[in-house]
Amino acid sequence: MGKICFNFIILLLIIGSCHAETVKFKNGVLKIFDINIRNKADVQKLSKYSNYTSIQFERSQIGTMTAEMLQQLNGAVNISLISVDLNVFQILPQFRRISLLYNKNVTVEVDTTAENNLQELEIRYASYKKLPEKLRCLENLEVLDLRHNQILYVNLDELSGMRKLRLLNLNHNKIIEFDSFLHKTINLEGLETLFIHSNQLVEVNFKHWNATSLRHIDLQDNKLSVVLSLLTSVPALEIVNLNDNPLDCDWKAFMLKEASVRKVATPSLRATNCTSNNDKMKPSVPHEVLEYETFKINGILKKEIFPAIGKLNISVNQNIRDKMIKVQNESNKISSKILQIENEAALKNTQLQLMIENLSDLFYRFVLKQNDLQKAKGIESEEGNTIEQGLSIEQKLAQIRKILESN
Questions:
Q1: Which end of the chain, C or N, has fewer beta carbons within 10 A?
Q2: What is the DSSP string of 3-36?
Q3: Which of 31-45, 83-97, 304-318, 368-382 has the lowest mean pLDDT?
């Protein structure tokens, strides 16, 4: 009996040692295995790892990764949890990259009271059936990787406005709807790569997308017959994967032709089998072709016709401006000539006035001289014929007239 108890104790020690907490440091990442956090005392265990910037937990039991717990790791900016028994994980502003792998049904909570600096969020094999909540509060997020979950519906309103998001990876889910539930414009100006292959999509419509940077789209292995507004609403598109879809043959032919003109790569699309749609009640393909033809015409108008009209308007306006300038110059010349004539007339008038004054003064002096000669001969003037000094021209002329009348 004693031997059995001894062996049992040894077995427990062996099992306990197999699950003892172990730590490894490799390639700049601190890897912590088999750590168990059950109470506040256990939380203090984490404080000894506070100086590490990249930490990875594996095969551990944590339960709830609260803000209090994560503050023990105040130096960590990159954190990974792989196969951890975890219910809740709170995203703190300090984190730059978070990776949650094989953590079933973990709930991610976003701290909305402070600015979040998270740039990459990876949640895989977590059995998610919908997008995590409050993703738009992660305003600096650049990479969102939700591969290998159970997501059924993607409401793009929950992502619209994430201007820094560059890569969205939704591969290997069960998505049957991928659209704005409110039918609003989807603003993802910074999105460059969209992976959504291996899902259950029947329809995708890019008509209300504002994704001017989107270059690579992977939609392979879905149930798509057409992809609406793909070429009209994604101007920067460089590569699109559409193989392993039951594409409509007419739409496939249209896509191959226009993608070739646009120099958009379509890997394996030509070899992909297509289906003929004989249902005349579904005008998707003719409507799509008509929409794209209208788009091309608008493009020609914008690139060639409108600029030509603009140049013509510029030329006409320039001619009008040249003629107006010429008329203005001639008008200025005429005004200058008129001013010159007026100045010359004023000068001549001044000269004439001066001449009259000089002649009047000379004649006045002549009369004065004659009057003095008469006095010298003893001929006295009548009373009141005295010539006075300092008179104006008019006064002088009046005196001369008086003298001449008296003589």
A1: N
A2: HHHHHHHHHHHHHHHHTS-EEEEETTEEEEES-B
A3: 368-382
Query: Quick check: 380 pLDDT over 80?
Result: no
Coil/strand/helix, residue 236: coil
Higher pLDDT residue, 103 or 4?
103
Q: Quote the Cα angle for 136-78-119, to 5°.
A: 30
Distance from C-alpha of 385 to C-alpha of 363, rounded to nearest angstrom: 16
Amino acid sitting at position 69: M
Sequence-distant (≥ 6) Cβ neighbours of residue 28 within 8 angstroms? 53, 54
What one-letter code names the amino acid at 335? Answer: S
Angle between helices 249-262 and 284-300 (to 10 degrees): 20
Sign of CA dihedral 233, 236, 238, 239: negative
Q: Exposed, middle or buried, 61 (CB in 10 Å: 0-12/13-18/19+)?
A: middle
8-14-17 Cα angle (round to 5): 140
Q: List CB contacts of 59: < 8 A, sequence separation 6 or more.
A: 33, 34, 82, 83, 84
Q: How far is CA 392 from CA 129, 364, 372, 395, 398, in A?
A: 115, 11, 21, 5, 10
Phi, psi of 165 (to 5 degrees): -65, 120
pTM to 2 decimal places: 0.68
Tell me the helices (H) and strands (E) count for the chain, helix number first. Answer: 8, 22
Percent of the chain residues topping a pLDDT of 90:
39
